[in-house]
């Protein structure tokens, strides 16, 4: 019976035959010649310090990715804004005032204040209008008169009638999503990468993570308990070595192709600079298939006590349909994690990003134990800018990976986005992902509406390389623009907030957590605990 797995020689032959441009895999092989074995990740690219961006003017215009080219000259112009018109004779009450029955003043901090009123629900995008964060609202009110739609809409003296501000915030538990683990489905991921060969013609630095050949090193104590955060040292035949720390489940994953492993390697483990498992020789198989290397440590396993959670969020205009819901979902996720893991030392941070020419490119909120403070930072974000499809994902990831992550914490990075980096910056984006892998940071993408081939490819490569999963929003919630079906054969659809909690709980506990039956909204394909059951006629090649 023929194996379903291709040998590496056959796989390479499939990739390099034909008259098409040289595929990415072949390019990486050529680049590796003469560089030795046990390739280590490049240093994290450096960026200038974040600029203090000027506040957005009250007469700005929101643009979406589908709205045409960005007017960069206008957004970067240094000409002073014209003076505001004189205030009306009888100034109205401030916009932040709240009528009875619409919450208190503190609730207004979570509200997106726009330049015109709208009775549309919060999840429906109104026509383009200025969006001003809660911090900017006071300044905007001081320089511009209120906008009225008609005489009937004019403000009147008290007692005030019911007013639409602040609008009720969307509730959590609305957005729906699926997930896929490409490390559990190497055959399907290899087929997906092969079908995506055309992308390599557009993006020469497109990463290739060959999940068909994986060496997983598992470090346990003598009682079989996993040792988290142990340094696994792989030494190649030429003396070069790679060090990768274990996750909470005691495992560290190496990719012979990506890491350029030699045929013969030795594997050992250290912790706190001391050897806890002696070197063991390993012969790296040349055929497709996973290898498991077990190491037994001479010390007992310790409990995970810390979590560093960094949320990297695209806040461009095309995220407008979902950003208000995402705020509620992320607040719910944060609250749930902190409530469930009260004995866990949790720090949370953010990197919000847009693109070059927007009012900011990245905006970083450093790790903080004060959950209320970081949730306030999240509540003040709105969706604006963009213009073209790609965004500054490269800069956002560099900022996030470069934060002060604790070496003895579970490190989780949620990347919430609906667009890829710019083609010419894919290489820099991937360098940031490899730096995250070297730091033992899980990158868990959450793909929003608008995600197309390049974005899905980049996100799935990041997730696979960092021992994480690819999450994607679905149309089941009815929120946002239509979501393109992912190139995935099987998955379960559940609520997004519950899914993210399960993924982070898995990263903390070291064991995969599946949804309960009542959590499942629908299923696609034949799903079995994260694995897709392959059809009998499955082939690696696409047709």
Architecture blueprint of SSEs:
Blueprint (H helix, E strand, L loop, with lengths): L7 H9 L7 H9 L39 H5 L36 E2 L16 E2 L1 H10 L32 E5 L5 H10 L1 H6 L10 E8 L10 E6 L4 E5 L5 E4 L9 E8 L2 E10 L5 E8 L9 E9 L5 H21 L4 E9 L8 E7 L2 H9 L13 H9 L8 E8 L8 H13 L2 E7 L5 H13 L4 E4 L17 E5 H14 L12 E3 L2 E2 L2 E2 L11
Parallel strand pairs: 4-10, 11-12, 11-14, 14-15, 15-16
Antiparallel strand pairs: 1-2, 3-16, 3-17, 4-7, 5-6, 5-8, 8-9, 12-13, 17-18, 19-20
Helix pairs in contact: 7-8, 7-12, 9-10
Question: What does this entry look like structurally?
Answer:
This protein has 543 residues and is an alpha/beta fold. The chain is built from 12 helices and 20 strands. The chain has helices spanning 8-16, 24-32, 72-76, 134-143, 186-195, 197-202, 320-340, 371-379, 393-401, 426-438, 453-465, 496-509; strands at residues 113-114, 131-132, 176-180, 213-220, 231-236, 241-245, 251-254, 264-271, 274-283, 289-296, 306-314, 345-353, 362-368, 410-417, 441-447, 470-473, 491-495, 522-524, 527-528, 531-532. The strands form 5 sheets. A 9-stranded mixed sheet has the order 13-12-11-14-15-16-3-17-18, with helices on both faces. Strand 14 (410-417), helix 10 (426-438) and strand 15 form a beta-alpha-beta unit.
